[in-house]
Amino acid sequence: DSTIYPVHVLSDGLLGLSLPPAVLEKTYKDLAQRKLEALVCNRGVSTVARPEVIVCAPSSRSQAAEALDKFARDKNADFIFISSHGRSGLKRALLGSFAETLVLHAQTPVMISGPHDTATPRLDRIIFPTDFSPLSKRAFAETIKIAGRLQASLTVLHAVSNPAEGYLSAGATLLGAGFIPVRNMMEKNVTRQEKK
Predict the structure, then answer these.
(1) 21/24 Cα distance (integer angstroms)
(2) How far apart are CA 56 and CA 111, in angstroms?
(3) Does the reported pTM lie above 0.85?
């Protein structure tokens, strides 16, 4: 029963151009609006709002991300759902990642669909990776709300790094002890993180 707000951010920063806002609006906005409407029409979903194009120029990728986040906050959106191209290498260096920039700048929670994701009929399982930071704890509180609304199960994941079996301690080396086994340290660390 959620309302979906289809939106496209039309930004000279995302296009890698430097255009005056009037040119961007006059030349590209109508085309972007038609493309967005064609994308969402005849989907058989009654809760889709009228598609909107946000013109953001002159701008950078971060300003475009902030404009999308402001739109989401103005609509009181629970989260922003965005797809990622999954670029790497030279393409990523040249074109960057709008999804990543959005995650870094948005005050609204962001859900990203990767380029290889398969369609799912229902969002009923959520994995929440955490580093136990204060920011992660706030995000977890929001995730609990979303999981409740979706009636989804929630799995919390924390990865404990696994250092090499032994490491060289500068102090121990000075004392002639050499390598110190870390198995006990790892077991204590895992137990501590499980308690968290």
Answers:
(1) 5
(2) 22
(3) no
